[in-house]
Specification:
Number of strands: 14
Structural class: alpha/beta
Strand order of the largest sheet: 3-4-2-1-5-6-7
Distance between the termini: 11 Å
CATH topology of the largest domain: Rossmann fold
CATH superfamily of the largest domain: TPP-binding domain
CATH class of the largest domain: Alpha Beta
Strand content: 5-15%
Helix content: 40-55%
Radius of gyration: 27 Å
Amino acid sequence: MLGTEIDRFISDYLSEIDAGNAAIFAGAGLSVPAGFVDWASLVRPLAEELNLDVSKEADLVAVAQFHVNSNQQNRHALHKAIVDAFAVNTAPTTNHSILARLPITTYWTTNYDKLIEKSLEEAGKIVDVKWALEQLAVTRPRRDATIYKMHGDVDRPDQAIATRDDYEHYGTKNGAFINALAGDLVSKTFLFLGFSFTDPNLEQVLARVRTTFKNHQRRHYAIFRRRKRLDAEDEAEFEYAKIRQALVLEDLKRFNISPLLVDEYDEVTKILAEIERRYRSRTVFISSSASDFAPWGEEAVWSFMRKLGSALMSAKLRLATGMGVGVSNALFSGALETIYNEKLGHLEDRITLRPFPQHIADDAKRKEVWETYRQEIISFSGVALFLFGNKRSGSDIVAADGMIREYEISRKNGLLCLPVGATGHAAEVIAKRFLDEIGSEQPEVTELVRSLLEHRENLNELIEPLLKFITANRAK
């Protein structure tokens, strides 16, 4: 169960995602579960060369500087440590993948690794990576996300920000990064993940924003693991550590950063997964087609679909559809009219249309394209409605096998599936199959699906219970 504070954060951050104002700031802690090292592990061999115990060093940047000093400013060992630690071809973590699927367009990080860009590329996004000053002036065409690697990239360890010298000259050499970050902190809502807030560059930027905007700073969020007692700690040391963490978290409030505490790191994954679930639950995938409109008649079915499209938009939901034959134009018309009449924003932000290409001569190729189409559009959704689902085969009307396939994909992707069996044909087949497969696993959904199997003289009676359930699920 998520606490009230976490739940409030999720609602607020989702609003920022919807508005296009969400940003991520990733620290080393986000990459550690992938097998990469934190700063202490990175500089440990350097510290050992200096006969220092890294566990006793609070200022690890100073350790890197000491090592460079002891080698007459030669940074080879430091560069090699960075390459050895971060050049490994490691898969992104679950947290990276969840973030990549969300429509977050701005990422800042002090990490050298490539996990963020890799996860975004795996999600099919065009990524604009900026780790050098001159890259700030060039924009990659049609980019979906921008990553600002303010401390450099593993491919250029010679330009990595690692020593005290690097930090002291950062404002002069990389001032444009500071200005860009300050601008984003003013205009976007950040979620800090795996970040310790000991970085002097970030501290400088936060201080600049705070002194400029005083009591009008934008709210940001940071997730921390609640301090636990280490094996080597006695009670007094543990109490001291807890007091210090509480003071650090309280100090962040000067910059309007709200700290969120979790007991275990896997709770971060649960929080991110819940953000994704709620975001996807606002997109309803409609699987529908009809060549036969009995017993209601064509006009009644079209009227129902039109009113359904309108109701989905009025409920501030998003619509995704493959434009099934016979009914989807009415669905789209109702949604479109409501978007314009109620001034609900840009059409492309509310509706995703993916008409199936019909004129692919090769049967195997057509099936392959259609499968890719289905997988992609369903992956963006959180709820799936199944309506009617019949097609003409010669002189016969048969259940649409494509709708049944869309049900299977939806179940595999974890969508809330709501087959409306009362509309007959494939929808009825799916409803009965759903009840057999789910049983008592989802009692509320099962009850609704069972009620939606009952015949309706007036199809419009189906809209209210569907919308009520979908909107209630969105808030859970």
